[in-house]
Amino acid sequence: MKLLDVKNLNIGFSIDDEVFAVTQGIDFSVEKGKILGIVGESGCGKSVTLISILRLLPKNASVNADFINFNGQNLLDMTEDGLRKIRGNKIALIPQDPLTSLNPLYTVGNQIIEVIMLHQKVDKMKARELAIEALRQVNIPEPEKRIDEYPHQFSGGMCQRVIIAMALSCNPDLIIADEPTTALDVTVQAQIMKLFKEIQQKLGTAIILVTHDLALVSEVADEIIVMYAGEIVEKAKAEDFFDNSKHPYSQGLLNSLPKETDQKLNVINGQPPSIKDKISGCKFHPRCQQSLSKCFSEKPPMIDFECGHGVSCWLYENQNT
Questions:
Q1: Distance CA 282, CA 42 (A)
Q2: 28 φ, ψ (degrees, to nearest 5)
Q3: For residue 180, which of 246, 298, 267, 93 has the smallest C-alpha distance?
Q4: Nearest to 25 by CA among 42, 37, 7
Q5: Along the 321 residues of the chain, how does pLDDT read in single tens digits?
Q6: Nearest Cα residue to 218 out of 184, 257, 182
Q7: pTM value?
């Protein structure tokens, strides 16, 4: 069953009296209790897509879509008061940098308790109990003691666990994790991914994991969406994607992953376009080594294969099944 269903999402930013498209025609959904991985290079529109769902974009942004349905409600039709009841409560956002997301002047416990009391009708004593339990869920040792400590007393990885505990404190249906392993070392990254998988399995929470790290997302995601220049170029079940990726961009990302310590890394030549670049046809064609003449002038549709695998590429024009 679809928990979140987004249809034809278009986001633009007004800069110097001109509107530039950031995303175009974004369609995706997340089922209850599933993990969706959204991957792509920096600047491809991953984060702005997810933040737009909570209507947290700056004032110069415009958001248009056929619908953004969450639990059967179209978020585009909701008032600001209605959205406040969903943000942090039914949909929790885990931002990129945990160290700047926590207030250094307050204990981590006070910050979690504030969220709980904002969304749940409980007193401060009960909120403290729930905060301790949330810290315990994310495997922070001695939560009864550490709840009264300040952010600077936690490592980067532990601060990220605090942010995740804050997200879990109101038992959300959906967690949006925006580059949750940024600036963490490899060992801690693996621990955070393991924690997300545990949250999914134990609590049945749906998770959208935004990342540029395919190796990490391969361990936890049920489905994968690949974005490039504000568009979805491929979507598939995770196993199918990693075994049988189809889009040249997806293949380039996978080929750039290190396989052996002494192996030279493959790269995708060129750079992603900026929102001000005017590119006709497929936006990836300036960097694509398999481009056809058609790619330069016509935008490819999403071609659907079996098992929900879709790819936006002219190479598969006559191969859809």
A1: 19
A2: -165, 165
A3: 93
A4: 7
A5: 899 999 999 999 999 889 999 999 999 999 999 999 999 998 899 999 999 999 999 999 999 999 999 999 999 999 999 999 999 899 999 987 777 889 999 999 999 999 999 998 899 999 999 999 999 999 999 999 999 999 999 998 999 999 999 999 999 999 999 998 887 888 888 899 999 999 999 999 999 999 988 988 998 999 999 999 999 999 999 999 999 999 999 999 999 887 766 667 788 999 999 988 989 999 999 999 999 999 999 999 999 987 889 999 999 988 755
A6: 257
A7: 0.93
